[in-house]
Amino acid sequence: MRSAGAPPPAPQTPAAPAAAGSGGAPTGYRVYRGTSPGSVTTLVATLGSSQTSWKNSGLAAKVTYYYEVAATNAAGEGPRSNQASATTR
Questions:
Q1: What is the DSSP letter of 69?
Q2: Which end of the chain is least crowded, N or C, by CB within 10 Å?
Q3: At 17, is the pLDDT very low, low, confident or very high (cuts 50, 70, 90)?
Q4: DSSP state of 77
Q5: CA-to-CA distance for 88 and 27, rounded, in angstroms?
Q6: Where are the domains of the chain?
Q7: How far is residue 14's CA from residue 27's CA, in Å, rounded to a whole number?
Q8: What is the mean pLDDT of residues 59-86?
Q9: End-to-end CA gap in the chain
Q10: Do residues 2 and 8 lie in contact, with contact meaning Cβ atoms separated by under 8 Å?
C-alpha cells in the first residue's frame, strides 16, 4: 500500500521477444490502445528503441483509454506489458 502523496511505482519494461536462436535486444516498441479493459487491440504507435515519449492526440474528452506496450526485435513482437489506463478531461 502506498502512502498518500507517494509517487506510483515505475511501469514494467516490456520484454524482448524470445526466439529459437537470437532475436537480440529490443529494436522498437508498439503501443496499443482500447476503450475497455481487456480489449486493447488498436495499434496506435510504433516507436524506436531509444524513444522515451510519445504524444497521444485526437482523444475524446471524458473517456478512459487502456494501453499495452510490446517490445519488438528481429524475432517479432514480445508479450505485451501489463495494462495501464488514463482518463481524459
A1: E
A2: N
A3: low
A4: E
A5: 30
A6: 28-48+60-87
A7: 12
A8: 92
A9: 27
A10: yes
Task: Scan for cell 532475436, then name that residue.
Answer: 23
CB neighbours (10 Å) of residue 69? Answer: 22
Cα distance between residue 22 and residue 4, in whole Å: 44
b/e sequence 33-67, b meaning 16+ C-beta within 10 Å: bbeeeeebeeeeeeeeeeeeeeeeeeeeeeeebbb
CA 39 → CA 32, 34, 43, 44, 83, distances in Å?
Answer: 10, 6, 12, 14, 10
β-strand pairing of 28-34 with 76-80: unpaired
Q: 48 φ, ψ to 5°?
A: -75, 165
Asked whether 34 and 69 are in contact (CB, 8 A), the reply is no
Percentage of residues in the chain having pLDDT higher than 70: 75
Per-residue pLDDT band for 8 (boundaries 50, 70, 90) equals low
